[in-house]
Amino acid sequence: MKFTAEQIAGILEGEVIGNPNAEVSTLSKIEEGVDGSLTFLSNPKYVSFIYTTQASVTIVNKNFVPDSPISTTLIKVEDAYGAFTKVLTFYAQAKNDSKKGIEQPVFMSEDLKYGADLYLGSFTYIGKNVTLGKNVKIYPNCYIGDNVIIGDNMLMHAGVRIYSETVIGNNCCLHSGVIVGADGFGFAPNAEDAYDKIPQIGNVIIENDVEIGAGTTIDRATMGSTIIRNGVKLDNQIQIAHNVEIGENTVIAAQTGIAGSTKIGKHCIIGGQVGISGHIVIGNNVRIQAQSGVTKNMKDDEIIQGTPAFGYNDFSKSYVHFKNLPKMVIQFNEMIKSNIKE
After folding, report:
1. Domain extent for 234
2. What pLDDT is attached to residue 341?
3. Across-strand partners of 282?
């Protein structure tokens, strides 16, 4: 795909300074710009590269004025970083939208229902009574079990596994290796000091505008539903256990694990490698620092850290004392010796 500077400026509502017919077909960092690429400048630390970049077109802020001659064509906008993000989104969408049709070999049940502009990659399996919305893109080697419902504009990367009864809304993106709807970790001890499996007969519901990173797993509920609400963003390699509910627009970083039946509120920010116990409630707008262990309920707007996690400010103060503990012990022992001599 090729675009001219004038076309890009039209999309971004920007002003072209230079050659309006300059063509680009790829994107690049400003320091790695090559002929035919589009880049941007927003961080003052990178200003020097605009005089040496070989990129054909560069997006800049409106107030940028070069100090010496440049070869790249400029597109001036209010916010260069935001504008380039918009271009990235447009570029990715255009690339995925070009995928249409059903490759071979695939297996589809005869009762499959699907909307316009379906792309179905090779070696994909789709079970009975499945419904796919419009503009669904399913890349190769995916599995979709029986009775699954998927909304419009789904992007499912290679190797995703969607177990039976799962419901997924509109505008969702699942990256490679995601598994949705596997059994929850449910076992009951028996008289022989072994464990009996508890059947997991619930499902997973993923609402609209959700993105799930590579290798993340979301377990089906024992009964009822595991629910991922609108706008949730999950990083790579996260474990969501059975009957968990995650509130709207909450974001969770990689390698976090959430145990069964825990409820997490709206607009929370959870760092990497956080462990959250089961059967607790975390309020809205809670921030949990990386590598924390959460074992009790959290009220709205709390910021916590540590294992077990507690208030962030208290944790920071306590950690200062912890680092000084060896010195404090020496001082304490010297005080005891001094008192004994007296």
Report:
1. 101-316
2. 64
3. 264, 298
